[in-house]
Amino acid sequence: MNCKVGTINLTIRHLKQCLAWLLEQKLIPDNPAEKIGYIPEDRLKTKWITDQQERQLFAETSTPFG
């Protein structure tokens, strides 16, 4: 599978929550997901636009309105 880090972390969080609820309801003896950690995520990563997107942006902003 080729999933993004955010998707994997969200899946881990949902799994932890479901298993915690099952443990709370005494339907399972322990929560095996407690030992699973999250993957570090670089949320401040710079996102670049392509050269084509840059040209289009400048072309649209340089035309006069009306």
UniProtKB/TrEMBL annotation:
InterPro entries, per the entry: DNA_brk_join_enz (IPR011010)
> What highest taxon heads this organism's lineage?
Bacteria
Keywords, in A-Z order = Plasmid
What is the protein named? Integrase
Instruction: List the source organism.
Output: Bacillus carboniphilus
